[in-house]
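From: lab user (bench 3)
To: helpdesk
Subject: output format question, protein + 3,4-dihydroxyphenylalanine

Hello, I'm new to running complex predictions and I'm not sure whether the block I got back is the full result or only part of it. Here's what I submitted:
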Amino acid sequence: MKEKLEAIKEKALEQIKNSQQLESLNEVRISILGKKGELTSVLKSMKEVAPEDRPKVGQMVNEVRAEIEKLLEEKKVAFEKKLREEKMKAETIDVTLPAKKPMVGHRHPNTIALEEIERIFIGMGYEVVEGPEVEYDYYNFEALNIPANHPAKDEQDTFYINKDIVLRTQTSSTQVHELEKGRLPIRMIAPGRVYRSDEVDATHSPTFHQVEGLVVDKNITFADLKGTLQEFAKEVFGEDTKVKFRPHHFPFTEPSAEMDVSCFKCGGKGCRFCKGEGWIEILGCGMVHPHVLEMSGIDPNEYVGFAFGVGLERIALLKYEIDDMRLLYENDTRFLKQF
Ligand code: DAH
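Helpdesk reply: Thanks, we reran it on our side. This is the complete output you should expect:
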């Protein structure tokens, strides 16, 4: 028995010494000490040993086992150390490399455009106000001179909460809130989200943003409107920008107009960007309709005003030459970080 144990020990020590990697050490462990290992089978055959010899043989088995385990452990530690050293050598760190920067957020093109518009009008003495997105039909339509059966209501079909409450289709509703406050004169812009039951495409979305403007004071004329909006256009699109007012119709202004700016790509000659027109439409405007003032308790014989409404996305798309509005809503950082 003793020779057998010696033989097992010799064999194990030899195998351990010759092991070249961690995996083969494990194989040695299994073949000798494992459940079906050689040393284990010696233990199993103890019943063949005479009872009086059993303690001695048991002790010998344990000694051999301890010795093999010790050697396995030493070899394992050595292997691990070697591996670590190799890894460290392969992974030399260049401490002069620049650190990885944390991802920092970025202003959305809509926000950039809005902040610029706000800056321009604040510079002209305007106040920035906000109105509710969930709005009474009265503020969104009725008080803006759009009675129940007016065709303009069809053009701006929206989401009805109930018969009297809608998601606002235009920031023009904030005009009414400001007029009702009766604090005159008024010089305000009101940016915010609006809703329409439009299908999504490159130029439409069921939610988008507008910036409303309203000025009410004594002796305001169309010249004030023109001067103000011309200045606005030059600030946004460049000093050489020309503006053109085309007669239009809005129920809450009279007279009403749409304002075009000369194409800032081609300077007005006509190009792909302005679809050969030389002009790009950017907003609606007009002199506040006397009915609108009257309905909110302001005497139209004493006060006059002008108003305008501009699509925020439209400005952002033009300014940054983005050709699909949907990109503004997808929050793809590859897109957003370009601005
Ligand atoms: N609310 C209009 C729209 O959504 C835009 C507009 C036109 C606003 C003329 C105005 C205005 O204040 O005077 O189409």
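A quick orientation on your result: Residues 109-336 form a domain with the BirA Bifunctional Protein; domain 2 fold (CATH 3.30.930.10). Let us know if anything else is unclear.
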